[in-house]
Specification:
By secondary structure, the chain is α+β, with helices and mostly antiparallel strands. Strand 2 and strand 3 form a beta hairpin. The strands form 3 sheets. A 4-stranded antiparallel sheet has the order 1-2-3-4, covered by helices on one side. The radius of gyration is 38 Å and the shape is elongated. The longest helix is centred in the middle third of the chain and has 15 residues. Helix content is about 20%, strand content about 20%. The protein starts with 6 loop residues before the first helix and ends with a helix.
């Protein structure tokens, strides 16, 4: 349903201007550029904003009138952005802003209490439900040497595989140009456990993936089977051997 613009409220331009000048100050308010209905007997007047730091913004002054009243009352004065206004980026919570590789030397990142990538490594037959239980479990694990308090869950392994494959998997441009896959390279060191079926570490100091996790079907130009067809120059035999002519003083240097 279309709301009709109230004529008395729409005529309250002077009252709206006085209100916005008291809020913004002299020299910050421009021309009256429009009015639209908010509700019955309530409208919003639009004024240009002249502040150089708020280009594309406008002042909005909402006024209303009581039934049968011939004067308006100012309800609100706000500065609003227009279609071409410069706005700050949308705020993103820290938990969503953190990205792989953001934790640097000396920094600490707490493990989320309900991290789906992890499951308890030892629960004594039951899931940990409280902080106290979790602390007791970790204490028992450390004292008895039963293993890690937390290990990767299936979701954690799956997300890890997807991430590693996207970085150094068979679809990488370097892998498509490689002479052979990493699985046949002498510098490839396979991981242990379930992830070892697909991934390993590169140990070639000259490769771009040295000390990094690569998939078995990844590859690069530093494969161990890449060899030179001509390894150096064959020197001809000696024409003259002058080793017998070395003096005794010089010979002592080689003893």
């Amino acid at each position: 349903m279309t709301i009709k613009v109230d004529a008395v409220a729409a005529g309250g331009v002077d009252e709206a201007l006085i209100a916005v000048l008291s809020e913004a100050g002299e020299g910050q308010v421009g021309d009256h550029v429009g009015v639209y209905a908010e509700a019955e007997r309530q409208v919003t007047h639009i004024f240009e904003c002249l502040h150089p730091g708020y280009r594309g913004w406008h002042w909005a002054v909402t006024v209303s009138r009581a039934p049968r009243a011939r004067t308006v009352t100012v309800d609100d004065v706000v500065l609003l952005p227009g279609d071409d206004a410069l706005l700050a980026p949308r705020w993103v919570p820290w938990a969503e802003r953190i990205a792989p590789g953001d934790v640097g030397p000396g920094m600490r990142m707490a493990t989320p209490p309900e991290d789906p990538r992890l499951v308890p490594g030892y629960t004594a037959g039951a899931e940990s439900r409280t902080v106290e239980e979790s602390f007791e479990i970790r204490t028992v694990v450390r004292e008895l040497g039963l293993g890690r308090a937390r290990i990767l869950s299936k979701e954690g392994r799956d997300s890890t595989c997807e991430r590693w494959l996207s970085l150094r998997g068979p679809d990488a441009s370097e892998a498509r140009l490689a002479p052979a896959p990493c699985s046949t390279c002498g510098y490839f060191l396979r991981l242990r456990g379930e992830l070892g079926a697909v991934f390993g570490a590169c140990t070639n100091a000259f490769a771009g993936s040295d000390a990094m996790i690569v998939s078995i079907d990844y590859g690069c130009g530093a494969h161990s089977d890449v060899v030179e067809e001509h390894r150096g120059i064959h020197l001809p035999p000696l024409v003259w051997d002058d080793s017998d002519h070395i003096g005794s003083d010089e010979l002592s240097l080689f003893d």
